């Protein structure tokens, strides 16, 4: 099987059905990737926390711990690997739950191997163009990527996994106007959100948490275009 890849990735494959896992592993390895396998939620957490993976292909329905819990826990432990969720259920609530837990993309079973590989290539491109630093800040707002913590004025702020991802994107583009489409493609990479108000809802929640009780207000609306996070020194 001849497949174009961007780079060799180390992938954690988490799928409890052995035949499906074997098929996916074979396809990923034929595409040039290195694959570690886990078959339960606890195994996924152990491998995901102890080994450095570029991506995690994670089934939602797992024994002992479900994929949503595994995804959320990996993010809370500071994992920056791209996470692609797999599920047999195609409902908006299921997608939102996975994405809110920190997943980067979502793939519904059954799917073709070439689609899985294409999704992983897209995630690799996005990661390659987003340099990782440890601390991001704007004024008195600080984000610690390694510890997955956010604070403003020294006060800790509790964010959901998806709120954290959106704020990270805004901080990486401080002073730059970003459209809803840009936020969607860089944070979700999932078409359903192109036609919804999900971005506006999350921005509203972020404002409530990081702006309502503080001055100056950092998240600005650029009418008809999108949003800009403005550092006080640039305002």
Shape: elongated
> Taking all residues together, what is the mean pLDDT?
84
Q: How many structural domains can be distinguished in the coordinates?
A: 2
CATH third-level topology of the largest domain: Rossmann fold
Please give the CATH architecture of the largest domain: 3-Layer(aba) Sandwich
Annotate the secondary structure layout.
Blueprint lengths: L9 E5 L3 H13 L3 E5 L2 H10 L4 E5 L7 H10 L5 E6 L4 H9 L4 E4 L4 H16 L6 E4 L2 E4 L4 E4 L2 E3 L3 H12 L5 E2 H9 L9 H13 L8 E4 L3 E4 L6
Parallel strand pairs: 1-2, 1-3, 3-4, 4-5
Antiparallel strand pairs: 6-7, 7-8, 8-9, 10-12, 11-12
Helix pairs in contact: 2-3, 6-8
In a few lines, what is going on in this structure?
It contains 8 helices and 12 strands. With 235 residues, it is an alpha/beta fold. The protein folds into 2 domains: 10-128, 3-Layer(aba) Sandwich (Rossmann fold); 135-229, Orthogonal Bundle (Arc Repressor Mutant, subunit A), CATH 1.10.10.
């Amino acid at each position: 099987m001849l497949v174009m890849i961007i780079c060799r990735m180390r992938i954690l494959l988490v799928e409890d059905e052995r035949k499906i896992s074997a098929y996916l592993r074979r396809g990923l390895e034929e595409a040039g990737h290195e694959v570690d396998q886990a078959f339960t939620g606890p195994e996924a957490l152990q491998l995901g926390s102890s080994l450095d993976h570029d991506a995690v292909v994670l089934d939602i329905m797992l024994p002992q711990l479900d994929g949503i819990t595994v995804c959320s826990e990996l993010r809370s432990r500071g994992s920056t690997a791209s996470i692609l969720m797999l599920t047999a259920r195609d409902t908006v609530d299921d997608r939102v739950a996975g994405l809110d837990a920190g997943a980067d993309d979502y793939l519904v079973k059954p799917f073709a191997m070439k689609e899985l590989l294409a999704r992983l290539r897209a995630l690799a491109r996005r990661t390659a163009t987003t340099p990782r630093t440890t601390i991001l800040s704007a004024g008195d707002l600080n984000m610690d990527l390694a510890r997955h913590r956010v604070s403003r004025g020294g006060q800790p702020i509790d964010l959901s996994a998806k709120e954290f991802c959106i704020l990270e994107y805004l901080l990486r583009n401080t002073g730059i106007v970003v459209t809803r489409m840009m936020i969607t493609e860089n944070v979700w990479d999932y078409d359903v959100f192109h036609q919804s108000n999900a971005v506006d809802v999350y921005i509203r929640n972020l404002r409530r948490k990081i702006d309502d009780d503080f001055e100056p207000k950092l998240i600005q609306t650029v009418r008809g275009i999108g949003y800009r996070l403005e550092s006080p020194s640039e305002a």
